[in-house]
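Why do we care about 3D structure at all? Because function follows from shape, and shape follows, mostly, from sequence. That is the central idea of this module. The next example makes it concrete: a single protein chain, its amino acid sequence, and then its structure expressed as tokens.
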Amino acid sequence: MDQENTKPKTPDPNPEDSEIADASLAASRDQSGNIEAGSVAGKNAETPTASPEIVSASIVRPKISERQFRQVNRRELLKLTPVLALGAFAIPMLREPLLKQGLRFSDWASARMFRSGHLATTFDDSELTPFDNFPINGYDVEDPGVVLESWTLSVSGAVQKPGEYKLEQVQALNRVRQNTRHVCVEGWDVVGRFGGTRLSDFLDLIGADPGARYIAVECADDYYESLDMETARHPQTLLCYEMYDRPLTRKHGAPLRLNIPTKVGYKQAKYLTSLKVTNILERVGYWEDQGYPSFYGL
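And the structure:
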């Protein structure tokens, strides 16, 4: 027995008090198996001034496996994660890199969840927002003054048939009309009726490289945007030239705009003037280049 763990017990001048104290001690130590409660009380009653006893220290350790220990520590670390993240955002030099990494992860996750065969919800005619109540949300000006009679769409990049395409050539392809929801990043949404040709049909017409990754578009109001090829070939992505079964109005993007019900509103560029098929984007999009998500699927 280690000497440093022993302690002599001084005899109590009052035998009766000693008996009570020793009985209490014996009862508390009964679980460790060192002394039995009944025998201690009897012995001290017969010899109140017994010789000093050796008290053995006992350390009780909780029974926990290494796996449970790791799980507990993992939970505690996860609890601290939001606090650490907020603390990192408080450091100016870390704020912008963290935001960019967050956007990259968001776009990566959204792209992985996107399903080319999954259609956005369509609606009955009775559920349409009245045309006059459909918001006009311009980037710079409501009407950049496109000369409709001489308008063409300039096609370039990884295509077999580059050149200038007239509106009549786009309209000659199969027309699709769909009642879908338009969702604006500003917080509003409406259900509209859109008509046009599938962008995938136009890409087939111009002989777009099937292995290309993106299309990039530019607009008469200097707006610009891009789409990943899977979104561009989605069956509901339209080169839109109609709204509510009527020719597209100037304020809504005449003569040609994008309608993409699987994407947020700022991806749906108006007043298209050029389309490029490419593997490398020099610019992602007007709002994306200012910090907005580039995929932003719905």
